[in-house]
Amino acid sequence: QVQLVESGGGLVQPGGSLRLSCAASGLTFSRYTMSWYRQAPGKERELVATITTTGGNTDYADSVKGRFAISRDNAKNTVYLEMNSLKPEDTAVYYCNAVFWALTTLNYWGQGTQVTVSS
């Protein structure tokens, strides 16, 4: 059974930092492209950051470039999202996503972790 378990969310003041973690189990983690998505109230889920299987390539939404950093540790089956200079508009539920492209696409989601940026 595949599980993606996010942690590290919480309440932070504008300008602050948080580090999200997503621990994966039940899959061959190193074969999966990992991403972080977020969904704010009343808005669609949006892609925040993606990292390839080896960590050699990353991509970010324009709204977080220069502030967020995605990384992974394949030995620990964990992907991270370092978030700096947080803004109120970063408030959302953040979801971890794992995708493996083969003859069929395998796509898994975590349960989400709340990030609230407020003074």
Helices and strands in order:
Blueprint: E1 3-7, E2 10-12, E3 18-25, E4 33-39, E5 46-51, E6 58-60, E7 68-73, E8 78-83, E9 92-101, E10 105-109, E11 113-117
How does this structure look, described?
The protein is mostly beta strands and 119 residues long. Helices cover 0% and strands 54% of the residues. Strands 2, 4, 5, 6, 9, 10 and 11 form a seven-stranded mixed beta sheet that branches. A four-stranded antiparallel beta sheet has the order 1-3-8-7, with no helix packed on it.
List keywords for this structure.
mainly beta, 7-stranded mixed beta sheet
Main structural class: mainly beta
Cα shape: globular
Major β-sheet profile = 7 strands, mixed
List how many beta strands DSSP finds: 11
Oligomer: single chain
Helix content: under 10%
> Taking Cα atoms only, what radius of gyration do you get, to the nearest Å?
14 Å
Strand content: over 45%
Task: Note the total helix count.
Answer: 0
Distance between the termini: 40 Å
Roughly what is the average pLDDT, rounded to an integer? 97
- The low-pLDDT segments are none
**Could you give the order of the helices and strands?**
EEEEEEEEEEE
Q: TL;DR of this structure?
A:
The chain is mainly β and 119 residues long. Helix content is 0%, strand content 54%. The strands form two sheets. Strands 2, 4, 5, 6, 9, 10 and 11 form a seven-stranded mixed β-sheet that branches. The chain has a four-stranded antiparallel β-sheet with strand order 1-3-8-7, with no helix packed on it.
